[in-house]
Amino acid sequence: KEALLQVKQLSVEFPTRHGTLKALNEVSFDIAPGEILGVVGESGAGKSLTGAALIGLLEPPGRVSGGEIWFEGRRIDNLGAAEMRALRGKKIGAIFQDPLTSLNPLFTVGQQLIETIQAHLPLNASQARARAIDLLAQTGIPAPEARIDQYPHQFSGGMRQRVVIALALAAEPKLIVADEPTTALDVSIQAQIIQLLKRVCREHGAAVMLVTHDMGVIAETCDRVAVMYAGRMVEIGPVQQVIHCPAHPYTIGLMGSIPAMDEDRERLLQIDGAMPRLNAMPQGCAFHPRCTQALARCREAVPALREVSGTQAACWLHQAEAQ
Ligand code: SF4
Ligand code: MG
């Protein structure tokens, strides 16, 4: 299948007074039409930056310093601001942690939905309203005919995120970038919202890049998973393969965070230490100070992603023959 999105060797840097910090290093991956790709890793690993770079919303002074992003066969990393905004409105949707960042408090939910729908589909006012009500119903909002005329503050946090999902789908995007979409919500409704996101995106045929620090969410939702560490992608593969047979020592450590899935995993070592800061990146594999299996060459050279029985991992353990 032709890729919907291709990210090739993407790098992002932040100029600072003390020099340039590389926040993302040569990250490559693709997403197929309708596929759900999870991106997991600790806070600061580069997950949100990758998502922000894709949709042209990197916070200045951060900037793409290398690589290419292709969407539907067209290069998009070099588009101007207006073109990128148009693409974001129509083909690529975004869902952020806090639903209030996506909703305008001054307009009713219906006004916002109808505006988005009419910007993308040739529908008159009553047709667009019917479609908006339908979207609210699909996202599990009770009594959508009444709720459509309410303002965002009249919805609970969970209901608001359902509205945001409806709004993201209103333009029938091909890709939705969802960055920690349930982190700000009550724990009791997080799973519901994730299942909803998965179901409606499947129904609408939208691919999803789901950024989360929660391996449990990945396991339940995604087709493939990409693991990030210190600004690099260290493993990527089909979700079952990565969960049951992770190749990278960092991924193996991460699996300790989903003990309920497999009793054996509970006995795996938790990872000691912390991820290095951008201004103090160790040489070689950035994981080596925390890795119990580090080899001499791990301190010298950065391993590239290579095929390892069913997944791809960036680890010298699996590249003995390359030396
Ligand atoms: Fe550990 Fe070396 Fe693999 Fe890095 S490359 S994860 S330090 S074994
Ligand atoms: Mg983040």
Automatic annotation (TrEMBL):
One of its GO terms (cellular component) is plasma membrane. One of its GO terms (molecular function) is ATP hydrolysis activity. InterPro entries: AAA+_ATPase, ABC_Ni/Peptide_Import, ABC_transporter-like_ATP-bd, ABC_transporter-like_CS, Oligopep_ABC_C, P-loop_NTPase. CDD domains: ABC_NikE_OppD_transporters. The keyword Transferase does not apply. SMART domains: AAA. Keywords: ATP-binding, Cell membrane, Membrane, Nucleotide-binding, Transport. Coiled coil: none annotated. Residues 5-255 form the ABC transporter domain. It is found in: Cell inner membrane. It is a peripheral membrane protein. Its main location: membrane. It holds the Pfam family oligo_HPY. PANTHER family: DIPEPTIDE TRANSPORT ATP-BINDING PROTEIN DPPD, OLIGOPEPTIDE TRANSPORT ATP-BINDING PROTEIN APPD. Belongs to the ABC transporter superfamily. This is Peptide/nickel transport system ATP-binding protein.
